[in-house]
Amino acid sequence: MSSRANRISRRTFFFYGSLLAGAIPAAGCGGSSSTPSLTRLGYKSPNEKLNIASIGAGGRAEGDIRGCESENIVALCDVDDKQAAKTYAQYEKAAKYKDFRKMLDKEGKNIDAVIIATPDHMHAIAAMWCMERGLGVYVEKPLTRTVWEARQLTLAAEKYKVATQMGNHGYSNEGTRLAAEVIWSGEIGNVTEVHAWTNRPIWPQGMSAVPAAEPVPSTLDWDLWLGIAQERPFTSGGAAYADGDGFYLPFNWRGFFDFGCGALGDMACHILGAPNMALRLGAPSSVAVIRQEGKNDLTFPSSSVIQFEFPARGSMPPLKLVWYDAMKDVPMRPAGLAEDEMLLGPGLKVKPCSDDAGAQVKASGGGKDTTAVQAAPAEPVRRPDQANGAVFIGENGILTTDSYAGNVRLLPAERMLDFKNPPQFLTRSPGHHRDWIRACKGGDPACSHFSVAGPFTEWILLGSIALRFEGKLEWDAKRMRFTNNDAANKYLKPEIRKGWDFHAV
């Protein structure tokens, strides 16, 4: 078994030769080193600090800004002073704004790159405004709320030649690349099914009524928070949402069709990163909802199961990928595995990343020297990470990855006893934010730059649309439309409110 994996140079190209030839970069995590991404200010020495601004200062933005603290944080923008207060205090000298358009107009000449960590519905327009000005962009996952916006950002990155990165940290993990190398080595044979799941949503979904309107808090610019979305009254949700997460904000917006992308948007860009890379998924041919509970016109359902079908890709056969959300545990068990076999857990040896994504890997056991010699326990063990993961079902075996691909596990576990990782075939990331910073200074493209992240986001978002309809939706990626349901096509593109300018490429 180990000797087969060790012959990756010949074995990989024999197994998937026509698919991989020329497809894997010789340098960099996500693109060709011959076409480096440059910021508006051109090449910067690795020792010269970038001037970085952030659109979003509270919530997830805090972590992204912290991930870039090796550089100069020169401007901050947030529509809610209360949520931004902690970050504002930490970076006292940074210019402060509520409207990112005003920030870019006034500070743009002094900015090299911008972090965008807003609710999903504002990702695309904020990124486009930055890219038009020649600024590198780091955009939190999911890249956009709609398929059309994802396509636009992909095209804009090609046009403006700026450094880009989507904030799906798992794409930078050692485990994501190791999973690809193991699969390409032929260790588990052709993969025909992937099952992936998450415990999200961990916010309310399945509601169909909006609480009574309330006065807007003095710290919040509600109109700017709505941004391109259609106007509606502010509400905190009252006593039912007194836990601080509010009906819409600061956190629960994820569950609303108009603002977020539900569980898919929150975790699919992490959990499905390894399948997307290892199986070179491209675009699916169809998507269908197998089951959902709490269907309504306002929010994503309380739970769902969605199936994507992918055509053959070169030497890789057609693939069925099933997504499950609202799970407390593993939703399926591959045939032939013992009942006490743990699907997720310590696996093949991986090296932790050096930024916050690496901390997640280390916390889940991925940073330990666990050369995969851990037998299954006598009794079934249910770890917290059993609620987020993916199973690859191959013709000759099974491989699993967890939330951020921190652990890559072969099943049954005894297959790992004498297994040696395939020789490294892919480059490794220095850390998700560092990867982007390097690209902004003229280095190799980041691992999840928009030529990767755009198409990846597109196919994930097809699942969000499928939740509104019954039956299978047939997808034509080239024409960017569903071929058997015209009603579904209207959800591919956002309805942009008057007063907001989105310049299509």
Automatic annotation (TrEMBL):
Residues 212-273 form the Gfo/Idh/MocA-like oxidoreductase bacterial type C-terminal domain. Keywords: Signal. The keyword Nuclease does not apply. InterPro entries: Gfo/Idh/MocA-like_OxRdtase_N, Gfo/Idh/MocA_oxidrdct_glycsds, Gfo/Idh/MocA_OxRdtase_bact_C, NAD(P)-bd_dom_sf. GO terms for molecular function: nucleotide binding. It comes from the Bacteria. Residues 1-23 form the signal peptide. Residues 355-379 are annotated as: Disordered. Residues 51-167 form the Gfo/Idh/MocA-like oxidoreductase N-terminal domain. This is Oxidoreductase.
